[in-house]
Design a protein that fits this description.
With 123 residues, the chain is mostly beta strands. 3% of the residues lie in helices and 50% in strands. It contains 1 helix and 11 strands. The strands form 2 sheets. Strands 2, 4, 5, 6, 9, 10 and 11 form a 7-stranded mixed sheet that branches. Strands 1-3-8-7 form a 4-stranded antiparallel sheet, with no helix packed on it. The longest helix is centred in the first third of the chain and has 4 residues. The chain is globular, with a radius of gyration of 14 Å.
Length: 123
């Protein structure tokens, strides 16, 4: 079972940047990393959770939701078993609870979730 711990949320003015991190444990990247796809979801206040990024682990182009395309970037540090989400040019509409998640790449079932980290953008 993959465990995920997210960090890096906070409050920022519109136009600013934040970087979220997601540390994975419970597997070694060298042995299982190629079969694990990572993603980021967010839940705006009063709304449901939406997928914003799916890296497909290189099997397909990284998916970015239209609302974040060109502003958010996912990156991976295999040595640290860490995925990061760089968020630039933040907008008040980006406010919400952000979750990292993992799935086996052959399944659409996101089985592992980090705890949410709050991002608040004030304009």
């Amino acid at each position: 079972q993959i465990q995920l711990v997210a960090s890096g949320g906070g409050s920022v003015q519109a136009g600013g940047s934040l970087r979220l991190s997601c540390v994975a444990s419970g597997y070694t990247y060298e042995k299982f990393g190629s079969s694990v796809c990572m993603g980021w979801f967010r839940q705006p206040p009063g709304k449901g959770r939406e997928k914003i990024i799916d890296d497909h682990n290189g099997r397909a182009p990284t998916y970015y939701a239209d609302s974040v395309k060109g502003r958010f970037t996912i990156s991976h540090d295999s040595a640290e078993n860490t995925h990061s989400l760089q968020m630039n040019n933040l907008e008040p509409e980006d406010t919400g609870l952000y979750f990292c998640a993992a799935r086996r790449c052959w399944s659409d079932d996101w089985k592992s979730w980090g705890q949410g980290t709050q991002v608040t953008v004030f304009g």
